[in-house]
Amino acid sequence: MPSRTSAAESAPLSGARGQPFVLLPHPALPAPDFSIDGELAFAGGELTIRYAVRGDLARLRLPPPSAPTAADGLWQHLCLELFVADGEGGGYREFNFSPSSQWASYAFTDYRVRDQGAAAVPAPAIDCRRLPGALELRARLSLVGRGPGEGRPCRFAVAAVLEECDGRLSWWALHHPAGRPDFHHRDAFVLSLTERP
Description:
It contains no helices and twelve strands. By secondary structure, the chain is mainly beta. The protein starts with 18 loop residues before the first strand and ends with a strand.
């Protein structure tokens, strides 16, 4: 089972190790009154990502806390997402993190083609805090011996789904390819990092 990290571990990542990012709402939708930024670090086979959702949190439908277990369908509600691809080939992994502390992990051999035989990843450590005007979620997960990384450059797509209290959804990403929201699209993998020792 994943564990919740301490408040000290949930502090912002070191600027020397972390890559900052800002997510953009899908341009086809009315601009929501929120913003999402964060930071991603990849070292020693371990990924650490911090998201900060800023705005009037009372307008968001935040899921209640639950046991930190794996769960499907998190992307249908408020969900913070990370996609990791090797610089070579079409394979990638998808990770979903919910403020409830639930999570999901999926492997793909190509665009939306599930890899049922992929090695499982250990449960991530997730910490979610509600701050004045911001919801901050930090997740830490290991990819040691499980595909992406291992000293090679990796490409990342960072994304999010926000759900407001009236049920309205908005889709956020580093980059939105043309058309409907599609976090799996290869053109969405615009952040590149090489794993640090």
